[in-house]
Structures
1.
Amino acid sequence: MKKTAFSLVLLLGMAAFSCSDNSGNGKSSESKSPASSTSTNSDESTPTSLNIRYIDMDSVAAKYNFALDLQEMTIRAYSKLQNAGQGREAEINKLGQQIEEKMRNNGYLSQESYDADVAKLNKMQQDAQTYLGNLQRQSEQEIAAQQQQLADSIESFIKDYNKTRGYDAILYKAAGAYFNPALDITEEVIEGLNARYNKVEKK
């Protein structure tokens, strides 16, 4: 189920996530943040360099406890759906075999009796399809809600994190072809995410 972690990354969006500098008024081209390395042209309107960092979302999905819990939840939901399907299939096959055996042994004394058993089998199949369909939709909705919470928790943390850093942008690694490894803040972000998530869990 390692692919599950990667599917979570897709839901977080691979586009760049820009973080605003909270130390200025948002209109000045001269950043006041000590962490910023932005310089400007003579017209003071266009920055010639940006103070950027990046995050490897594959690592976040593999190490963030919320993401790991969501992976376990997804596995449990899949197992529950699979077990339910196998159980209903076994019941249907059992009834079908009983009907066939009764036919071979001339156990049906009338067409009505045979038709009643066939109708019961058909209803059992229809009920199984309805039940499994509802169970699958319920599981998908629960997982989707948790995935949205996961995405929101990461976005919220990054915004709070950048308030004390003042980076011009924090990107996801997948958004670019190459980043200098010195710009990687993944481990620091994962540590902060887990610290905040664990604190919430203890409440």
2.
Amino acid sequence: MANISAKDVAALRAKTGCGMMECKKALVEADGNIDEAVKVLRERGLAVAAKKADRIAAEGIVKIMQKGDLAAMIEVNSESDFVAKNEKFQAFVDQLLETIIENKPADVDALMACKLSGKDDTVDAALKEQIFVIGEKLTIRRFVIVEGAVSTYVHGGGSIGVIVKFDLDGVASDDAAFVECAHNVALQAAAMNATYANKEDVPQSALDEEKEVLLNQMANDPKMAGKPDKVKEGIVMGKLGKFYETNCLAEQAYVKDDSMSVAKYVASVNKGIKIASFVKYEKGEGLQKREDDLAAEVAKLTQGK
């Protein structure tokens, strides 16, 4: 059996980021060969990733990278907020964004098959290696690529990310007034819960559903139930205006001056600017959250389990 020195263990640890005991075990298994030990650790990483597959990862980070007229946003989930703040984890997320911009994959499965930017490994292999090194379940949940005149904003260290795309007519994308306006709209999109960019984007099915809800509300209201259908229809159409104001970014009251809508604010800057679309990611949105039972954890510790 090869003599494993502390220097060898330190060298392997520096190369892989794994713990000292794991590095020593891998070197023993590889008979002291560092390259073989790296391979052993990576192979173990696959097993570790499989073991963690059923664990809940609802923390993590939303990050954005913009290069020229191309912007990419990604959500990568971890089990704890502590890991999300780890510099190595964040550097890995940056590599994922580089990979997305370079390859423009169609979906997460396609991204997993890409070579990680600047590396020989696939994203899938690199992710499993990160799971082994970090010791938590990590998941690439979603990403989006937006091309054109855009403004981006990330809030709360990665809790919310927004990309807003604009149609420009006679306005340069680097025009100072546009850049400021676009940033303000991105802030609005992050702060408020819009579903659609413009009224025209609302599908008929959503409007029909809203009308049905409003009509049912009137049918259950004794004061409204007896009113003629034409009157009810007029009331419904009036209330749909409120629906647009709540759900459409362009129709919302502008947060910095609620005397006008976002669309009117944009037009006041330059009539050649129009909100085309937006994408908003909220970290862990819709995911099951881990519920820690503190009393049970303390009991386990006191019982030595």
